[in-house]
Amino acid sequence: xxxxxxxxxxxxxxxxxxxxxxxxxxxxxxxxxxxxxxxxxxxxxxxxxxxxxxxxxxxxxxxxxxxxxxxxxxxxxxxxxxxxxxxxxxxxxxxxxxxxxxxxxxxxxxxxxxxxxxxxxxxxxxxxxxxxxxxxxxxxxxxxxxxxxxxxxxxxxxxxxxxxxxxxxxxxxxxxxxxxxxxxxxxxxxxxxxxxxxxxxxxxxxx
Length: 207
Known about the structure:
The protein is of the alpha/beta class and about 210 residues long. The protein has helices at about 1-40, 60-70, 90-95, 115-130, 145-155, 175-205; strands at about 50-55, 80, 105-110, 135-140, 160-165. It has a five-stranded parallel β-sheet, sandwiched between helices. Helix 2 (about 60-70) links the parallel strand 1 (about 50-55) and strand 2.
């Protein structure tokens, strides 16, 4: 009888865990759908001039978009974060087919290897140069997480988000396994960074 009761309890626990997992999975999937809608429908700001433009490497045409915005006068300086060591701006321009009007206005940072390091290295430069506003240029799926990392590193910084869309990333995330995996991975990373930001805010309030 005791053995049977223990098995019943285990079954109840397993059923509860399965129900919880199902609910969390549905919430995550609904959040993923919202995330994809959000990254496909940014409010595009083509008017605001900022103290600097910051471009994050890693996706196609990010640097090209940022340089063209610099050429068009959206800022007087461009900071490119995460360029591979040994790679020059001229090589990138030749590969991505864009022209540089004034190379003296472009700063290349080659220490960072990921988004967190992008934000930290850029944050140091932002503080050193008393930058109050930036136009953040990166791939549309990468922009929400990048913006959070920059906000964590730079309290009070005004961000103008500038998404770069790629033909290789399908607009319908469910129609392509590659796009689904990319967006799902980025959404999960975004949730983790968001949680980190909330924990940091809570700790600062307590202090």
